[in-house]
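// run 5 | inverse folding | seed 20
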């Protein structure tokens, strides 16, 4: 399975064995679907989603064949993954895929994306090169993302580069 990180189990809910998962991945609507298969950190098994609902910003997931809280406690605090091929097409990506991409401005490499933060409206990349700076993932600054060459093309970033 080509795994895509989609969140972390932060606890259980109720006595029926629902897992409470916190996620900030952009494709939640595709990842958390009944019938999808999940896998968990340090666990070689695959688990099928039997039901999904949202409660107070977290996803409550019931796994097929698990009907009791005691049956799922071993999954508490574990990272959750889904098969990337089931939720993304070949030309789709999630923001975390861009870590390690080169950032190009005026045909010159100015750094590499080393981290990101998801905001309410857009993600912001931390770019490290000769200087560190934050690059908002908006059309005013990011003109193209080339998945094949692993490059992010930008414009108008001179005013963003203020750190040493």
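// decoded
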């Amino acid at each position: 399975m080509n795994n895509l990180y989609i969140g972390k189990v932060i606890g259980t809910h109720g006595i029926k064995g629902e897992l409470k998962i916190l996620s900030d991945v952009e494709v939640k609507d595709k990842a958390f679907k009944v019938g999808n298969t999940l896998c968990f950190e340090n666990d070689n098994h695959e688990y099928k989603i039997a039901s999904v609902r949202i409660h107070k910003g977290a996803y409550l997931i019931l796994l097929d064949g698990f009907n009791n809280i005691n049956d799922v406690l071993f999954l508490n605090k574990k990272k959750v993954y889904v098969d990337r091929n089931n939720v993304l097409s070949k030309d789709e990506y999630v923001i975390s895929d861009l870590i390690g991409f080169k950032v190009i401005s005026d045909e010159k490499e100015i750094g590499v994306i080393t981290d990101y933060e998801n905001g309410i409206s857009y993600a912001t990349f931390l770019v490290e090169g000769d200087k560190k700076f934050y690059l908002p993932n908006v059309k005013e600054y990011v003109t193209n993302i080339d998945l094949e060459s692993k490059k992010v093309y930008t414009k108008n970033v001179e005013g963003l580069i203020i750190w040493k």
